[in-house]
Specification:
This protein is an alpha+beta fold. The protein is built from 22 helices and 15 strands. It has a domain at about 385-560. The strands form six sheets. A five-stranded mixed beta sheet has the order 6-7-8-10-9. Strand 4 (about 185-190) and strand 5 form a beta hairpin. The structure holds zinc ion.
Protein backbone atom coordinates (compact mmCIF):
# COMPACT_ATOMS: atom_id res chain seq x y z
CA UNK A 1 0.00 0.00 0.00
CA UNK A 2 2.75 2.41 0.92
CA UNK A 3 4.41 1.80 -2.42
CA UNK A 4 1.28 2.36 -4.36
CA UNK A 5 0.40 5.64 -2.67
CA UNK A 6 3.94 6.86 -3.14
CA UNK A 7 3.73 5.97 -6.82
CA UNK A 8 0.53 7.89 -7.30
CA UNK A 9 1.94 10.95 -5.56
CA UNK A 10 4.94 10.77 -7.84
CA UNK A 11 2.79 10.66 -10.93
CA UNK A 12 0.99 13.80 -9.90
CA UNK A 13 4.28 15.51 -9.26
CA UNK A 14 5.46 14.58 -12.76
CA UNK A 15 2.37 16.05 -14.33
CA UNK A 16 2.86 19.27 -12.41
CA UNK A 17 6.54 19.23 -13.29
CA UNK A 18 6.05 18.87 -17.00
CA UNK A 19 4.13 22.12 -16.92
CA UNK A 20 6.70 23.84 -14.77
CA UNK A 21 9.30 23.45 -17.49
CA UNK A 22 10.25 26.54 -19.49
CA UNK A 23 7.85 27.06 -22.32
CA UNK A 24 5.43 24.38 -21.18
CA UNK A 25 1.91 24.92 -22.46
CA UNK A 26 2.98 27.68 -24.81
CA UNK A 27 2.13 27.30 -28.48
CA UNK A 28 5.12 25.38 -29.88
CA UNK A 29 7.93 27.36 -31.39
CA UNK A 30 8.53 24.64 -33.93
CA UNK A 31 11.81 23.70 -32.29
CA UNK A 32 11.30 19.96 -32.88
CA UNK A 33 13.55 18.19 -35.30
CA UNK A 34 15.95 15.36 -35.73
CA UNK A 35 18.58 16.57 -33.27
CA UNK A 36 17.96 18.52 -30.15
CA UNK A 37 18.71 22.20 -30.39
CA UNK A 38 21.60 22.99 -28.11
CA UNK A 39 20.80 24.89 -24.97
CA UNK A 40 17.06 24.43 -25.41
CA UNK A 41 15.28 22.41 -22.74
CA UNK A 42 13.12 19.91 -24.65
CA UNK A 43 9.48 20.05 -23.69
CA UNK A 44 7.63 16.71 -23.66
CA UNK A 45 3.93 16.56 -24.34
CA UNK A 46 1.79 14.74 -21.78
CA UNK A 47 1.19 11.05 -22.43
CA UNK A 48 -2.19 9.91 -23.67
CA UNK A 49 -3.63 7.53 -21.07
CA UNK A 50 -7.07 7.10 -22.59
CA UNK A 51 -6.16 3.48 -23.43
CA UNK A 52 -6.40 2.64 -19.72
CA UNK A 53 -10.18 3.07 -19.92
CA UNK A 54 -12.67 2.87 -17.09
CA UNK A 55 -15.08 0.43 -15.52
CA UNK A 56 -14.71 -2.98 -13.89
CA UNK A 57 -11.20 -4.34 -14.36
CA UNK A 58 -10.66 -7.82 -15.80
CA UNK A 59 -8.46 -9.80 -13.41
CA UNK A 60 -6.92 -13.24 -13.84
CA UNK A 61 -8.53 -15.67 -11.43
CA UNK A 62 -5.18 -16.97 -10.13
CA UNK A 63 -3.77 -13.68 -8.87
CA UNK A 64 -4.00 -14.75 -5.21
CA UNK A 65 -2.13 -17.95 -6.07
CA UNK A 66 0.55 -16.02 -7.96
CA UNK A 67 0.99 -13.71 -4.98
CA UNK A 68 1.34 -16.69 -2.63
CA UNK A 69 4.44 -17.83 -4.55
CA UNK A 70 6.24 -14.93 -2.88
CA UNK A 71 6.55 -15.86 0.79
CA UNK A 72 6.14 -12.79 2.94
CA UNK A 73 9.33 -12.73 5.02
CA UNK A 74 10.53 -10.26 7.63
CA UNK A 75 14.02 -9.09 6.69
CA UNK A 76 15.80 -7.61 9.67
CA UNK A 77 19.17 -6.00 10.24
CA UNK A 78 20.73 -5.58 13.62
CA UNK A 79 21.31 -1.92 14.52
CA UNK A 80 23.09 -2.78 17.76
CA UNK A 81 26.47 -1.49 16.71
CA UNK A 82 25.10 1.83 15.43
CA UNK A 83 25.26 5.17 17.21
CA UNK A 84 22.23 7.40 17.67
CA UNK A 85 23.40 9.64 14.84
CA UNK A 86 23.93 6.70 12.51
CA UNK A 87 20.35 5.67 13.15
CA UNK A 88 19.21 9.16 12.22
CA UNK A 89 21.27 8.88 9.02
CA UNK A 90 19.42 5.63 8.30
CA UNK A 91 16.07 7.42 8.60
CA UNK A 92 17.10 10.07 6.08
CA UNK A 93 18.35 7.42 3.67
CA UNK A 94 15.09 5.52 3.92
CA UNK A 95 13.16 8.72 3.19
CA UNK A 96 15.28 9.38 0.07
CA UNK A 97 14.84 5.75 -0.98
CA UNK A 98 11.05 6.08 -0.88
CA UNK A 99 11.41 8.71 -3.61
CA UNK A 100 13.37 6.24 -5.78
CA UNK A 101 10.38 3.94 -5.49
CA UNK A 102 8.12 6.62 -6.93
CA UNK A 103 10.54 7.32 -9.78
CA UNK A 104 10.73 3.66 -10.70
CA UNK A 105 6.95 3.45 -10.88
CA UNK A 106 7.08 6.19 -13.48
CA UNK A 107 9.81 4.42 -15.45
CA UNK A 108 8.33 0.93 -15.32
CA UNK A 109 4.65 1.49 -15.96
CA UNK A 110 3.13 3.90 -18.48
CA UNK A 111 0.05 5.64 -17.11
CA UNK A 112 0.54 3.94 -13.77
CA UNK A 113 -1.59 6.45 -11.91
CA UNK A 114 -4.59 5.75 -14.15
CA UNK A 115 -4.04 1.99 -13.86
CA UNK A 116 -3.57 2.28 -10.08
CA UNK A 117 -6.93 4.02 -9.86
CA UNK A 118 -8.62 1.12 -11.62
CA UNK A 119 -6.78 -1.40 -9.46
CA UNK A 120 -7.77 0.59 -6.37
CA UNK A 121 -11.41 0.65 -7.44
CA UNK A 122 -11.53 -3.07 -8.09
CA UNK A 123 -13.84 -4.75 -5.60
CA UNK A 124 -13.76 -8.39 -6.74
CA UNK A 125 -12.95 -11.39 -4.52
CA UNK A 126 -9.18 -11.06 -5.03
CA UNK A 127 -9.05 -7.30 -4.48
CA UNK A 128 -6.43 -7.38 -1.75
CA UNK A 129 -4.20 -9.87 -3.58
CA UNK A 130 -4.51 -7.84 -6.78
CA UNK A 131 -3.33 -4.66 -5.09
CA UNK A 132 -0.41 -6.44 -3.44
CA UNK A 133 0.56 -8.12 -6.72
CA UNK A 134 0.30 -4.85 -8.63
CA UNK A 135 2.67 -3.26 -6.09
CA UNK A 136 5.07 -6.21 -6.23
CA UNK A 137 5.24 -6.10 -10.04
CA UNK A 138 5.24 -2.30 -10.30
CA UNK A 139 2.46 -2.55 -12.84
CA UNK A 140 -0.21 -4.90 -14.22
CA UNK A 141 2.30 -7.22 -15.93
CA UNK A 142 3.69 -10.37 -14.38
CA UNK A 143 7.46 -10.16 -14.16
CA UNK A 144 7.53 -13.87 -13.53
CA UNK A 145 5.52 -14.90 -16.59
CA UNK A 146 6.91 -13.11 -19.63
CA UNK A 147 5.20 -9.84 -18.73
CA UNK A 148 1.80 -11.41 -19.17
CA UNK A 149 -0.93 -9.01 -18.00
CA UNK A 150 -2.64 -10.26 -14.82
CA UNK A 151 -5.24 -7.54 -15.01
CA UNK A 152 -6.56 -5.19 -17.66
CA UNK A 153 -5.24 -7.20 -20.59
CA UNK A 154 -2.99 -4.43 -21.90
CA UNK A 155 0.14 -5.77 -23.62
CA UNK A 156 3.42 -4.93 -21.90
CA UNK A 157 5.49 -2.32 -23.73
CA UNK A 158 9.02 -3.76 -24.08
CA UNK A 159 10.50 -0.30 -23.61
CA UNK A 160 8.49 0.09 -20.37
CA UNK A 161 7.79 3.80 -19.92
CA UNK A 162 11.19 4.99 -21.14
CA UNK A 163 9.87 5.59 -24.67
CA UNK A 164 6.57 6.70 -26.19
CA UNK A 165 4.18 3.78 -26.63
CA UNK A 166 3.45 4.56 -30.27
CA UNK A 167 6.94 4.27 -31.79
CA UNK A 168 6.87 3.71 -35.52
CA UNK A 169 9.09 1.07 -37.12
CA UNK A 170 11.28 3.81 -38.53
CA UNK A 171 11.65 5.43 -35.11
CA UNK A 172 12.46 2.11 -33.53
CA UNK A 173 15.16 1.54 -36.10
CA UNK A 174 16.54 5.00 -35.59
CA UNK A 175 16.64 4.53 -31.81
CA UNK A 176 18.38 1.19 -32.27
CA UNK A 177 21.23 2.94 -34.04
CA UNK A 178 21.19 6.04 -31.86
CA UNK A 179 24.34 7.13 -30.05
CA UNK A 180 23.41 10.53 -28.61
CA UNK A 181 20.94 11.76 -25.97
CA UNK A 182 18.13 9.49 -27.18
CA UNK A 183 20.26 6.46 -26.31
CA UNK A 184 21.71 7.95 -23.13
CA UNK A 185 21.44 6.13 -19.79
CA UNK A 186 19.82 9.03 -17.97
CA UNK A 187 17.15 10.34 -20.34
CA UNK A 188 13.48 9.58 -20.89
CA UNK A 189 12.41 9.58 -24.54
CA UNK A 190 9.25 11.52 -25.22
CA UNK A 191 7.63 13.53 -28.01
CA UNK A 192 7.60 17.27 -28.38
CA UNK A 193 4.63 19.28 -29.57
CA UNK A 194 5.61 18.57 -33.18
CA UNK A 195 5.58 14.82 -32.51
CA UNK A 196 9.35 14.45 -32.78
CA UNK A 197 11.26 12.18 -30.40
CA UNK A 198 13.17 14.11 -27.76
CA UNK A 199 15.43 13.06 -24.91
CA UNK A 200 14.53 14.56 -21.54
CA UNK A 201 17.28 14.29 -18.91
CA UNK A 202 16.19 12.62 -15.66
CA UNK A 203 17.16 15.81 -13.80
CA UNK A 204 14.45 17.66 -15.75
CA UNK A 205 11.89 14.94 -16.11
CA UNK A 206 11.96 14.09 -12.38
CA UNK A 207 13.09 17.51 -11.24
CA UNK A 208 11.04 18.02 -8.09
CA UNK A 209 11.47 14.50 -6.73
CA UNK A 210 15.19 14.44 -7.38
CA UNK A 211 15.54 17.84 -5.70
CA UNK A 212 13.72 16.41 -2.65
CA UNK A 213 15.93 13.32 -2.65
CA UNK A 214 19.04 15.48 -2.96
CA UNK A 215 17.94 17.52 0.06
CA UNK A 216 17.52 14.35 2.14
CA UNK A 217 20.95 13.08 1.13
CA UNK A 218 22.51 16.40 2.13
CA UNK A 219 20.74 16.24 5.49
CA UNK A 220 22.06 12.71 5.99
CA UNK A 221 25.55 13.94 5.10
CA UNK A 222 25.34 16.63 7.80
CA UNK A 223 24.34 14.00 10.37
CA UNK A 224 26.98 11.45 9.42
CA UNK A 225 30.32 11.24 11.21
CA UNK A 226 31.75 9.11 8.43
CA UNK A 227 33.76 11.11 5.91
CA UNK A 228 33.50 8.61 3.04
CA UNK A 229 29.74 8.41 3.38
CA UNK A 230 29.46 12.21 3.64
CA UNK A 231 31.42 12.69 0.43
CA UNK A 232 29.33 10.19 -1.46
CA UNK A 233 26.01 11.62 -0.26
CA UNK A 234 26.97 15.17 -1.19
CA UNK A 235 28.20 14.18 -4.65
CA UNK A 236 25.18 11.96 -5.30
CA UNK A 237 22.88 14.83 -4.35
CA UNK A 238 24.65 16.93 -7.02
CA UNK A 239 24.29 14.10 -9.55
CA UNK A 240 20.53 13.96 -9.02
CA UNK A 241 20.41 17.55 -10.26
CA UNK A 242 22.90 17.41 -13.14
CA UNK A 243 22.78 13.77 -14.38
CA UNK A 244 26.53 13.38 -14.00
CA UNK A 245 26.95 10.30 -11.81
CA UNK A 246 30.63 9.73 -12.45
CA UNK A 247 32.11 11.44 -9.41
CA UNK A 248 29.57 10.00 -6.98
CA UNK A 249 30.01 6.53 -8.51
CA UNK A 250 33.75 6.88 -7.86
CA UNK A 251 33.09 7.96 -4.25
CA UNK A 252 30.58 5.16 -3.72
CA UNK A 253 33.46 2.74 -4.31
CA UNK A 254 35.24 4.16 -1.26
CA UNK A 255 32.42 4.18 1.29
CA UNK A 256 33.67 2.60 4.47
CA UNK A 257 30.82 3.10 6.87
CA UNK A 258 28.65 0.82 9.00
CA UNK A 259 25.66 2.42 7.30
CA UNK A 260 25.76 2.18 3.52
CA UNK A 261 23.47 3.27 0.75
CA UNK A 262 23.26 2.58 -2.96
CA UNK A 263 20.83 5.00 -4.49
CA UNK A 264 20.10 6.32 -7.97
CA UNK A 265 19.64 5.10 -11.55
CA UNK A 266 21.67 1.94 -12.15
CA UNK A 267 20.57 -1.14 -14.07
CA UNK A 268 19.18 -1.21 -17.59
CA UNK A 269 17.19 -4.47 -17.44
CA UNK A 270 13.85 -2.69 -17.39
CA UNK A 271 14.47 -1.26 -20.86
CA UNK A 272 13.71 -4.43 -22.79
CA UNK A 273 13.66 -2.52 -26.07
CA UNK A 274 17.29 -1.36 -26.22
CA UNK A 275 18.79 -1.74 -22.75
CA UNK A 276 19.82 1.92 -22.80
CA UNK A 277 17.98 3.37 -19.82
CA UNK A 278 18.86 3.15 -16.14
CA UNK A 279 16.21 2.42 -13.52
CA UNK A 280 16.01 4.10 -10.13
CA UNK A 281 16.52 1.97 -7.06
CA UNK A 282 17.93 2.02 -3.56
CA UNK A 283 19.51 -0.37 -1.09
CA UNK A 284 19.98 0.85 2.46
CA UNK A 285 22.23 -1.61 4.23
CA UNK A 286 24.09 -2.18 7.46
CA UNK A 287 27.58 -3.53 6.79
CA UNK A 288 29.15 -6.62 8.34
CA UNK A 289 32.78 -5.52 8.40
CA UNK A 290 34.23 -8.72 9.89
CA UNK A 291 32.71 -10.85 7.16
CA UNK A 292 33.77 -8.35 4.47
CA UNK A 293 37.36 -8.53 5.62
CA UNK A 294 37.37 -12.34 5.44
CA UNK A 295 36.15 -12.16 1.86
CA UNK A 296 38.30 -9.32 0.67
CA UNK A 297 41.24 -11.70 0.25
CA UNK A 298 39.52 -13.21 -2.80
CA UNK A 299 39.86 -9.92 -4.61
CA UNK A 300 43.60 -10.53 -4.83
CA UNK A 301 42.81 -13.42 -7.17
CA UNK A 302 41.00 -11.31 -9.77
CA UNK A 303 44.06 -10.42 -11.90
CA UNK A 304 45.12 -14.07 -11.88
CA UNK A 305 41.64 -15.13 -12.99
CA UNK A 306 41.54 -12.50 -15.76
CA UNK A 307 44.94 -13.72 -16.97
CA UNK A 308 43.64 -17.30 -17.09
CA UNK A 309 40.36 -16.64 -18.90
CA UNK A 310 39.95 -19.17 -21.75
CA UNK A 311 40.15 -16.52 -24.48
CA UNK A 312 43.01 -15.16 -26.63
CA UNK A 313 45.47 -12.87 -24.81
CA UNK A 314 44.53 -9.91 -27.00
CA UNK A 315 40.98 -9.97 -25.62
CA UNK A 316 42.05 -9.98 -21.99
CA UNK A 317 41.73 -6.84 -20.03
CA UNK A 318 44.43 -6.71 -17.37
CA UNK A 319 43.74 -3.05 -16.58
CA UNK A 320 40.05 -3.36 -15.96
CA UNK A 321 40.71 -2.52 -12.33
CA UNK A 322 42.11 -4.48 -9.46
CA UNK A 323 40.59 -2.61 -6.56
CA UNK A 324 37.36 -4.51 -6.12
CA UNK A 325 35.95 -4.16 -2.64
CA UNK A 326 33.60 -6.80 -1.38
CA UNK A 327 31.02 -6.02 1.24
CA UNK A 328 28.72 -8.28 3.13
CA UNK A 329 25.74 -6.40 4.44
CA UNK A 330 22.27 -6.88 5.83
CA UNK A 331 19.40 -5.16 4.07
CA UNK A 332 17.59 -2.54 6.09
CA UNK A 333 15.37 -1.15 3.32
CA UNK A 334 15.10 -1.35 -0.47
CA UNK A 335 13.06 0.46 -3.08
CA UNK A 336 12.50 0.94 -6.79
CA UNK A 337 13.79 -1.66 -9.19
CA UNK A 338 15.42 -3.66 -6.41
CA UNK A 339 12.00 -4.06 -4.78
CA UNK A 340 10.25 -5.27 -7.94
CA UNK A 341 9.47 -8.96 -8.41
CA UNK A 342 12.37 -11.19 -7.52
CA UNK A 343 14.58 -9.90 -4.72
CA UNK A 344 18.26 -9.19 -5.29
CA UNK A 345 20.74 -11.38 -3.42
CA UNK A 346 23.82 -9.42 -4.29
CA UNK A 347 24.81 -6.66 -6.63
CA UNK A 348 27.84 -5.40 -8.42
CA UNK A 349 28.12 -1.69 -9.20
CA UNK A 350 28.69 0.82 -10.64
CA UNK A 351 28.13 -0.01 -14.31
CA UNK A 352 30.11 2.96 -15.63
CA UNK A 353 33.09 1.46 -17.48
CA UNK A 354 35.23 4.51 -16.67
CA UNK A 355 34.81 3.81 -12.97
CA UNK A 356 35.40 0.10 -13.49
CA UNK A 357 38.64 0.79 -15.37
CA UNK A 358 39.81 3.08 -12.60
CA UNK A 359 38.59 1.27 -9.50
CA UNK A 360 36.95 -2.01 -10.47
CA UNK A 361 33.51 -2.54 -9.07
CA UNK A 362 32.09 -3.07 -5.61
CA UNK A 363 30.21 -6.19 -4.68
CA UNK A 364 27.59 -6.07 -2.00
CA UNK A 365 26.27 -9.43 -0.82
CA UNK A 366 23.02 -9.23 1.06
CA UNK A 367 23.52 -11.79 3.75
CA UNK A 368 20.11 -11.73 5.41
CA UNK A 369 18.38 -12.09 2.03
CA UNK A 370 20.73 -14.88 0.98
CA UNK A 371 20.14 -16.87 4.15
CA UNK A 372 16.39 -16.50 3.82
CA UNK A 373 16.42 -17.70 0.22
CA UNK A 374 18.73 -20.65 0.83
CA UNK A 375 16.75 -22.15 3.68
CA UNK A 376 13.28 -21.42 2.34
CA UNK A 377 13.73 -22.02 -1.38
CA UNK A 378 17.03 -23.38 -2.62
CA UNK A 379 17.43 -26.22 -0.14
CA UNK A 380 13.87 -27.55 -0.68
CA UNK A 381 14.36 -27.34 -4.49
CA UNK A 382 17.57 -29.37 -4.33
CA UNK A 383 15.92 -31.93 -2.08
CA UNK A 384 13.13 -32.33 -4.61
CA UNK A 385 15.09 -32.46 -7.87
CA UNK A 386 18.52 -33.96 -7.20
CA UNK A 387 19.21 -37.68 -7.08
CA UNK A 388 19.31 -38.85 -3.47
CA UNK A 389 23.06 -39.39 -3.24
CA UNK A 390 23.84 -35.80 -4.25
CA UNK A 391 21.42 -34.02 -1.92
CA UNK A 392 23.93 -34.05 0.93
CA UNK A 393 26.17 -31.78 -1.14
CA UNK A 394 23.82 -28.79 -0.96
CA UNK A 395 25.40 -26.20 1.30
CA UNK A 396 24.66 -22.61 2.25
CA UNK A 397 28.39 -21.92 1.95
CA UNK A 398 28.41 -23.01 -1.72
CA UNK A 399 25.44 -20.79 -2.41
CA UNK A 400 27.25 -17.92 -0.75
CA UNK A 401 30.51 -18.60 -2.62
CA UNK A 402 28.83 -18.84 -5.99
CA UNK A 403 26.97 -15.60 -5.38
CA UNK A 404 30.22 -13.97 -4.36
CA UNK A 405 32.10 -15.17 -7.44
CA UNK A 406 29.17 -14.30 -9.70
CA UNK A 407 29.52 -10.72 -8.51
CA UNK A 408 33.30 -10.71 -8.88
CA UNK A 409 32.96 -12.07 -12.42
CA UNK A 410 31.05 -8.99 -13.55
CA UNK A 411 34.38 -7.21 -13.15
CA UNK A 412 36.24 -9.74 -15.34
CA UNK A 413 36.28 -10.22 -19.11
CA UNK A 414 35.57 -7.78 -21.96
CA UNK A 415 34.06 -4.39 -21.07
CA UNK A 416 35.48 -1.61 -23.23
CA UNK A 417 36.18 -3.12 -26.63
CA UNK A 418 37.22 -2.14 -30.15
CA UNK A 419 34.97 -3.11 -33.08
CA UNK A 420 36.18 -2.35 -36.63
CA UNK A 421 38.68 0.10 -35.20
CA UNK A 422 35.98 1.91 -33.24
CA UNK A 423 36.28 2.16 -29.43
CA UNK A 424 33.02 1.09 -27.83
CA UNK A 425 31.53 -0.97 -24.99
CA UNK A 426 30.07 -4.47 -24.89
CA UNK A 427 26.86 -2.98 -23.48
CA UNK A 428 26.37 -0.68 -26.47
CA UNK A 429 27.11 -3.35 -29.07
CA UNK A 430 24.98 -6.19 -27.68
CA UNK A 431 22.03 -3.91 -26.93
CA UNK A 432 19.00 -5.88 -25.63
CA UNK A 433 21.08 -9.09 -25.43
CA UNK A 434 23.67 -7.48 -23.21
CA UNK A 435 22.05 -8.07 -19.82
CA UNK A 436 21.22 -11.71 -20.52
CA UNK A 437 24.71 -12.52 -21.71
CA UNK A 438 26.40 -10.58 -18.95
CA UNK A 439 24.37 -12.41 -16.29
CA UNK A 440 25.03 -15.79 -17.89
CA UNK A 441 28.72 -14.91 -18.05
CA UNK A 442 28.81 -13.96 -14.39
CA UNK A 443 27.11 -17.21 -13.38
CA UNK A 444 29.31 -19.58 -15.35
CA UNK A 445 32.47 -17.59 -14.78
CA UNK A 446 31.68 -17.61 -11.06
CA UNK A 447 31.65 -21.41 -11.04
CA UNK A 448 34.65 -21.57 -13.35
CA UNK A 449 36.60 -19.27 -11.03
CA UNK A 450 35.90 -21.45 -7.97
CA UNK A 451 37.02 -24.54 -9.90
CA UNK A 452 40.17 -22.73 -11.04
CA UNK A 453 40.97 -21.58 -7.51
CA UNK A 454 40.35 -25.09 -6.20
CA UNK A 455 42.95 -26.34 -8.68
CA UNK A 456 45.22 -23.60 -7.40
CA UNK A 457 44.80 -24.91 -3.87
CA UNK A 458 42.50 -22.30 -2.34
CA UNK A 459 39.63 -24.70 -1.69
CA UNK A 460 39.47 -28.41 -0.78
CA UNK A 461 38.38 -30.89 -3.46
CA UNK A 462 35.20 -31.62 -1.50
CA UNK A 463 33.96 -28.23 -2.60
CA UNK A 464 33.53 -29.34 -6.23
CA UNK A 465 30.43 -31.56 -5.87
CA UNK A 466 29.04 -29.05 -3.40
CA UNK A 467 29.46 -26.22 -5.87
CA UNK A 468 28.04 -28.17 -8.80
CA UNK A 469 24.91 -29.40 -7.03
CA UNK A 470 24.17 -26.15 -5.22
CA UNK A 471 24.68 -24.25 -8.49
CA UNK A 472 22.21 -26.58 -10.20
CA UNK A 473 19.61 -26.02 -7.48
CA UNK A 474 20.26 -22.32 -8.03
CA UNK A 475 19.55 -22.65 -11.77
CA UNK A 476 16.16 -24.19 -11.06
CA UNK A 477 15.44 -21.48 -8.54
CA UNK A 478 16.20 -18.79 -11.11
CA UNK A 479 14.47 -20.33 -14.12
CA UNK A 480 11.30 -20.58 -12.07
CA UNK A 481 11.13 -16.80 -12.28
CA UNK A 482 10.34 -17.16 -15.95
CA UNK A 483 12.53 -16.49 -18.94
CA UNK A 484 11.25 -13.02 -19.73
CA UNK A 485 14.06 -11.07 -18.15
CA UNK A 486 17.83 -11.21 -18.21
CA UNK A 487 18.47 -13.38 -15.15
CA UNK A 488 15.88 -16.01 -16.09
CA UNK A 489 17.13 -16.19 -19.68
CA UNK A 490 20.70 -16.38 -18.45
CA UNK A 491 19.85 -19.39 -16.31
CA UNK A 492 17.93 -21.15 -19.07
CA UNK A 493 20.97 -20.74 -21.33
CA UNK A 494 23.17 -22.41 -18.73
CA UNK A 495 20.74 -25.22 -18.00
CA UNK A 496 20.26 -26.12 -21.68
CA UNK A 497 23.97 -25.85 -22.37
CA UNK A 498 24.84 -28.22 -19.51
CA UNK A 499 22.12 -30.64 -20.55
CA UNK A 500 23.38 -30.66 -24.13
CA UNK A 501 26.94 -31.33 -22.95
CA UNK A 502 25.70 -34.12 -20.65
CA UNK A 503 27.03 -32.40 -17.54
CA UNK A 504 23.48 -32.87 -16.29
CA UNK A 505 21.71 -36.15 -16.70
CA UNK A 506 18.14 -36.87 -15.82
CA UNK A 507 17.98 -40.18 -13.95
CA UNK A 508 14.56 -41.72 -14.70
CA UNK A 509 14.82 -44.42 -12.06
CA UNK A 510 15.42 -41.89 -9.30
CA UNK A 511 13.34 -39.15 -10.93
CA UNK A 512 16.09 -36.67 -10.29
CA UNK A 513 19.02 -34.86 -11.87
CA UNK A 514 22.58 -36.04 -11.45
CA UNK A 515 25.57 -33.79 -12.00
CA UNK A 516 28.71 -35.26 -13.58
CA UNK A 517 31.28 -33.04 -11.90
CA UNK A 518 34.17 -33.65 -14.34
CA UNK A 519 32.03 -33.01 -17.45
CA UNK A 520 30.46 -30.07 -15.66
CA UNK A 521 33.81 -28.36 -15.21
CA UNK A 522 34.67 -28.52 -18.93
CA UNK A 523 31.17 -27.55 -20.07
CA UNK A 524 31.30 -24.51 -17.82
CA UNK A 525 34.65 -23.45 -19.25
CA UNK A 526 33.27 -23.86 -22.79
CA UNK A 527 30.39 -21.55 -22.04
CA UNK A 528 32.69 -18.99 -20.43
CA UNK A 529 34.74 -18.99 -23.64
CA UNK A 530 31.70 -18.75 -25.91
CA UNK A 531 30.18 -15.79 -24.11
CA UNK A 532 33.46 -13.94 -23.63
CA UNK A 533 34.22 -14.22 -27.35
CA UNK A 534 30.80 -12.77 -28.26
CA UNK A 535 31.45 -9.92 -25.85
CA UNK A 536 35.03 -9.34 -27.00
CA UNK A 537 33.90 -9.06 -30.61
CA UNK A 538 30.76 -7.09 -29.76
CA UNK A 539 28.95 -9.66 -31.90
CA UNK A 540 25.28 -8.71 -31.78
CA UNK A 541 24.24 -11.44 -34.24
CA UNK A 542 25.91 -14.26 -32.32
CA UNK A 543 24.49 -12.93 -29.06
CA UNK A 544 21.00 -13.15 -30.54
CA UNK A 545 21.64 -16.67 -31.85
CA UNK A 546 22.91 -17.92 -28.49
CA UNK A 547 19.86 -16.51 -26.70
CA UNK A 548 17.44 -17.85 -29.28
CA UNK A 549 18.93 -21.33 -29.22
CA UNK A 550 19.48 -21.79 -25.48
CA UNK A 551 17.14 -19.43 -23.62
CA UNK A 552 14.27 -21.88 -23.95
CA UNK A 553 12.12 -24.06 -21.73
CA UNK A 554 12.50 -27.71 -22.85
CA UNK A 555 10.03 -30.33 -21.54
CA UNK A 556 12.53 -31.86 -19.09
CA UNK A 557 12.88 -28.45 -17.48
CA UNK A 558 9.20 -27.55 -17.41
CA UNK A 559 8.39 -30.99 -15.94
CA UNK A 560 10.99 -30.42 -13.22
CA UNK A 561 9.65 -26.95 -12.46
CA UNK A 562 6.13 -28.37 -12.19
CA UNK A 563 7.32 -30.42 -9.22
CA UNK A 564 8.24 -27.27 -7.31
CA UNK A 565 4.74 -25.86 -6.96
CA UNK A 566 4.74 -26.29 -3.19
CA UNK A 567 7.98 -24.32 -2.76
CA UNK A 568 7.85 -20.51 -2.72
CA UNK A 569 9.36 -18.85 -5.76
CA UNK A 570 10.79 -15.98 -3.80
CA UNK A 571 10.48 -13.99 -0.64
CA UNK A 572 8.45 -10.81 -0.34
CA UNK A 573 10.45 -8.75 2.12
CA UNK A 574 8.82 -6.91 4.96
CA UNK A 575 11.11 -4.31 6.50
CA UNK A 576 10.79 -2.80 9.95
CA UNK A 577 10.43 0.65 8.35
CA UNK A 578 7.84 -0.32 5.70
ZN1 LIG B 1 24.78 -10.37 -11.94
Amino acid sequence: MTNKSAGMAAALAVLVLSCALPGCGGGGDGAGGEEQATGEEPVPVAQDCSWVGTGELSVRDDVAQRLAAYAETPITASLEGLSEREREVLDKLVAASRIMNALFWEQACPCHEAIATRVGDYAGPQAEALRAYFALNFGPWDRRFDWEPFCGGWPHPPGANFYPLNLSDAERERLGGARGPLAALYTMVRRDAAGELIAVPYSSFFHQQLADAAKLLREAAVLSDNESLRHFLTARADAFLNDDYYESDMLWMDIDSPVEVTIGPYETYEDGLFGYKASFEAFVTVADSAESARLARYKGELPWLEAHLPIPESYKNPNRGTESPIRVADEYYTSGESRAGIQTLAFNLPNDERVREAKGSKKVLLRNVMNAKFSQILMPIGQELLVRSQRKDLTAESFFLHTLFHEMSHGLGPGKIVVDGRATEVRLELKEHYSTLEEAKADVMGEWAIFMLQEKGLFPASILPQQATTYLAGLFRSVRFGIAEAHGQANAIQFNWLLEKKALIYDDAQAGFRVDVAVFRDAIEDLVRTICMIQAEGNYTSAGKLSKHYATMPPVLSRALARLDHIPVDIRPVFAVD
